Amino acid sequence: MTTVCAAVLAAAAAHAAQPAAWDNLDQSRHLAGRMTSPGYMRGKVVLIDRRDYGVRSCVDAARRMEETWRAFKPKQFVLLGSHSGEAGAEKIARIAKGLSLTYPIYAQAWLASGNGEGAPAVADGTVCVVDCTGKVLYMGRDDRQAVSVVANALMAMRSPQTVKQWRHYIDFEIDVLPGRALNRITEFRKAFPKDAKDYDVAWKQLSSNDDIRRVAKLEALTLQAKDYDFKDKSARRLDPKKVKLAADAFADLKESRNEAVVQEAKNCIADLTWALAELEGGKGRKKK
Predict the structure, then answer these.
(1) Phi and psi for 241 in degrees, rounded to 5?
(2) In this structure, are residues 245 and 232 in contact, taking their beta carbons and an 8 Å threshold?
(3) Phi, psi of 106, rounded to the nearest 5 degrees
(4) Rounded to whole angstroms, how far apart are CA atoms 45 and 34?
(5) Quick check: 169 and 81 in contact, CB under 8 A?
(6) Per-residue DSSP letters for 132-174?
(7) Is 65 helix (H, G, I), strand (E, B) or coil?
(8) Distance between CA atoms of 228 and 94, rounded to whole angstroms?
(9) Rg (CA), the chain
(10) HEC readout, 81-93
(11) What would the pLDDT profile of 44-63 be if each residue is shown by its tens digit?
(12) Would you call 284 helix, strand, or coil by DSSP?
């Protein structure tokens, strides 16, 4: 396990400025739960849970994973179940339904090795946490520890405390999530004006592009919607009609000539669709 972890960490470090590469996330490998894609997982903290979902011994762990999914899915988070057994899609779908599992479960999904040879072999029961820039933060068998790592990663991602943390996210986001990068640099310029001077050129380039300015607004709206407390009815201030109108207003960004803007807009609109379904009490919830 130590060798595998070191190999994945080395691959992640070598490609720190690129989105994480994933194996077996095509539609034919989808077994149960929400559908996802490599593009949708871009810029999110990902927890991968590899096990044989067809055996009884995984029931308790799968239920803990579902609790984790429900707790963190309003954030920039994806839980990915990776089925490693022989059971086919129909059986896994029945099991998932019986256990009320709603997170994405794919056959043999994992991080690509980074050298074109596919994912490294890992044992069943292994969980892995990948931060929003593709860096492996944890790999092991303690899913409770992995959940703690996820919580810390989401907190650091939302509220960077140090200049180094700010740079870690900005350097990744500039090419991959330009709207989020524009918002991040704008905040960084206020928090650390001297250090932020290194990003003056990038900020001018991003802020001068109409599509990027618009997707930055869409990112801000999406963050507001996903941070909303859907359980607190007394504090409800988010209007479903306004959320839908906003999603429709930015839909044309999915046709932008900037491929990064296209993917970012798709991700944001998918998240707004989820938020809208939550506001409406789960009616008409759509899968990605």
Answers:
(1) -65, -40
(2) no
(3) -125, 155
(4) 16
(5) no
(6) TTS-EEEEES-HHHHHHHHHHHHHHHHS--SHHHHHHHHHHHH
(7) helix
(8) 32
(9) 19
(10) EEECCCCCHHHHH
(11) 999 999 999 999 999 999 99
(12) coil
User: Tens digit of pLDDT for each residue in 81-114?
Assistant: 999 999 999 999 999 999 999 999 999 999 986 4
Quickly count: other Cβ atoms within 10 Å of residue 156's Cβ.
18
Task: Please report where in the chains the tokens 């899968």 appear, as a residue.
Answer: 287
Residue of 90, 111, 262, 261 lying closest to 174 (CA atoms): 261
Indicate the domain borders of the chain: 2-157, 160-279
Q: What global pTM score does this model have?
A: 0.84
Asked whether 186 and 203 are in contact (CB, 8 A), the reply is yes
For the structural domain made of 2-157, what CATH number should be given?
Answer: 3.40.30.10
Task: Find the farthest-apart pair of alpha carbons in the chain and give their distance in angstroms, rounded.
Answer: 58
* One-letter amino acid for residue 277 of the chain: A
Dihedral in degrees, nearest 10, Cα atoms 230, 235, 237, 239 = 40
Mean pLDDT within 260-284: 83
Q: Which residue has the tokens 């043999």?
A: 108
β-bridge mates for residue 7, sequence order: none
Find where tokens 């989020």 sit.
Answer: 180
